[in-house]
């Protein structure tokens, strides 16, 4: 006997691997740049340029981009910057990796150290963690009914399932224009800049993914003024964008991973022809999955009045969304700063990076522990060393409540820095205010006993002959009308009619009459 089946699209992780890579190289200071006397700060960013599958291994090609801000008194302007890159390719062993797998590669810059070899040469060393995860898409056929024309009573049951609609990679490109406020001098040359996104929210909408948040820009630049040779600007702009997605609907569940890809700034002239405008560009890699929660009816059991049916069953696990929400952690702390050689006159920029040390399911919820590593760029009191950097660490712990029991559940926690403010509160003290958002997605793997195939056989004539035409029967434990009808080769409707049951349910111990079907 043939069954009608409906395919449910699913996604599962086939393999995962992690590799730590040390990247290091020496760089000569470009001829157009003055000698390096003192390094102020160094930043790094990894770009994954290409991935290739090779015989159960994943070849990852990438670039470490770095920026260095330094001080030199050889030129009229004391602050300068150098940019460079280190290219790399690494092979990651991944068991069970298949060509059709979708590989997602994430990176984390554990550490970057830029040091001075001599006034014309620097050394760049970094520790990068590369995590590769291979995903497999597949379809599970679910029996939902018998084929038309088959004479067999059927029993159906409802189940909740979260079905994969789309798994896709995309790039979000943002471009915002900033303008220097009155009182700030015109820009001669940008020496150093930083672009970051805070409070990013992404939601599924009809035919698109809505993206909004805040773009923060910091620039340190040289001016054309003799007295104020160096100035800085920090500002933010709200952005609103969308990513076209034909399959997207408003009620769908969006699960997304983001990584910065590139950033750039360009000086623009304003309406008066003065260089007071800044165009900031930020590109971000997106790996997202769209899921749809649905309730479907499947064929749970069946039998025939004419044939003996052999039912073959299989156990199929399905993913069901249990929870998706965002909780916030607010921190307000007074920190003691390490006293620099050049005392701090004013904090001009701060940047935070979240590091998760532990994400563990406990009795009272999901425990998240980590720290926010903050780099502070400041203006010093001494003109000889106009800018400097201080690093501070703010630890945090948070419990995500209301998650229930861990059994059969899979979860992910995605942290994001929504707000960060660092203000001097004394000569060697700073007040740090920050807000973290922790998006939590929990799926439960529910295993269902499904009909896979049905084989028909003729009833044993002796078995049929021994069945009485009518018999009295007492309902047993855990039996319902379906179980009784199937046992005695009749139908639920026939039992109801014979016993005048109407819509009444039978109970354990009830006596009913049964006639052979």
Notes on the protein architecture:
Strand 14 (344-362) and strand 15 form a beta hairpin. Helices cover 4% and strands 72% of the residues. The protein is elongated. It has 517 residues and is mainly β. The protein has helices spanning 461-466, 481-487, 492-499, and strands at 3-28, 38-54, 57-71, 79-93, 102-118, 121-146, 154-179, 189-205, 208-222, 230-244, 253-269, 275-302, 307-336, 344-362, 365-380, 387-400, 409-426, 429-458, 470-474, 511-515.
Categorize the overall geometry: elongated
Portion in strands = over 45%
Could you spell the SSE succession in H and E letters? EEEEEEEEEEEEEEEEEEHEHHE
Annotation, overall tally of beta strands: 20
Structural class based on helices, strands and sheet pairing: mainly beta
Distance between the termini: 20 Å
Instruction: State mean pLDDT (0 to 100 scale).
Output: 91
- Main sheet attributes: strand count, strand direction, barrel closure: 3 strands, antiparallel
List strands and helices in order, with pairings.
Elements: E1 3-28, E2 38-54, E3 57-71, E4 79-93, E5 102-118, E6 121-146, E7 154-179, E8 189-205, E9 208-222, E10 230-244, E11 253-269, E12 275-302, E13 307-336, E14 344-362, E15 365-380, E16 387-400, E17 409-426, E18 429-458, H1 461-466, E19 470-474, H2 481-487, H3 492-499, E20 511-515
Antiparallel strand pairs: 1-6, 2-3, 3-4, 5-6, 7-12, 8-9, 9-10, 11-12, 13-18, 14-15, 15-16, 17-18, 19-20
């Amino acid at each position: 006997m043939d069954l009608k089946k409906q395919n449910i699209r699913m996604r599962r992780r086939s393999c995962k691997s992690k590799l730590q890579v040390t990247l290091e190289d020496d760089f000569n200071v470009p001829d157009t740049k003055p000698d390096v006397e003192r390094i102020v700060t160094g930043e790094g960013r990894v770009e994954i340029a290409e991935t290739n599958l090779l015989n159960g291994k994943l070849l990852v090609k990438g670039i470490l981009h770095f920026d260095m801000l330094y001080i030199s008194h050889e030129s009229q302007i004391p602050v300068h910057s150098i940019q460079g890159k280190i290219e790399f390719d690494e092979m990651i062993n991944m068991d069970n990796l298949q060509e059709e797998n979708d590989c997602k590669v994430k990176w984390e810059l554990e550490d970057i150290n830029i040091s001075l070899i001599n006034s014309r040469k620097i050394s760049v060393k970094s520790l990068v963690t590369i995590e590769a995860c291979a995903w497999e898409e597949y379809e599970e056929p679910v029996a939902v009914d018998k084929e038309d024309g088959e004479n067999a009573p059927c029993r159906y049951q409802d189940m909740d399932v979260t079905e994969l609609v789309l798994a896709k990679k995309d790039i979000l490109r943002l471009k915002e224009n900033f303008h220097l406020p009155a009182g700030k001098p015109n820009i001669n040359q940008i020496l150093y800049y930083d672009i970051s996104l805070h409070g990013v929210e992404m939601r599924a909408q009809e035919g698109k993914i809505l993206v909004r948040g805040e773009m923060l820009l910091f620039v340190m630049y040289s001016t054309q003024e003799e007295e104020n040779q160096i100035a800085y600007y920090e500002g933010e702009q709200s952005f609103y964008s969308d990513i076209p997605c034909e399959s997207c609907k408003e009620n769908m569940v969006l699960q997304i991973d983001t990584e910065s890809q590139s950033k750039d700034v360009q000086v623009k002239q304003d309406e008066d022809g003065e260089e007071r405008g800044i165009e900031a560009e930020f590109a971000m890699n997106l790996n997202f999955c769209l899921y749809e929660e649905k309730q479907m009816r499947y064929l749970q059991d069946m039998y025939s009045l004419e044939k003996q049916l052999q039912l073959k069953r299989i156990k199929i696990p399905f993913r069901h969304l249990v929870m998706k929400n965002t909780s916030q952690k607010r921190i307000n702390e007074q920190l003691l700063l390490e006293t620099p050689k050049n005392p701090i006159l004013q904090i001009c920029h701060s940047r935070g990076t979240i590091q998760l040390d532990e994400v563990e399911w406990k009795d009272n919820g999901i425990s998240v522990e980590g720290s926010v590593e903050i780099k502070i760029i400041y203006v010093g009191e001494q003109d000889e060393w106009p800018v400097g950097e201080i690093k501070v660490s703010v630890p945090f712990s948070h419990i995500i409540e209301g998650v229930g029991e861990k059994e059969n559940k899979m979860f992910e926690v995605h942290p994001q820095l929504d707000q960060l403010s660092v203000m001097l509160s004394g000569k060697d003290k700073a007040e740090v205010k920050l807000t973290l958002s922790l998006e939590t997605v929990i799926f439960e793997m529910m295993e269902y006993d499904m009909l896979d195939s049905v084989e028909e056989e003729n009833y044993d004539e002796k078995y049929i002959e021994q069945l009485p035409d009518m018999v009295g029967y007492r309902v047993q434990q855990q039996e319902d009308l379906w179980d009784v009808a199937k046992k005695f080769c009749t139908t639920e409707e026939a039992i109801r009619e014979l016993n005048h049951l109407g819509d009444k349910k039978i109970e354990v111990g009830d006596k009913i009459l049964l006639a052979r079907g």
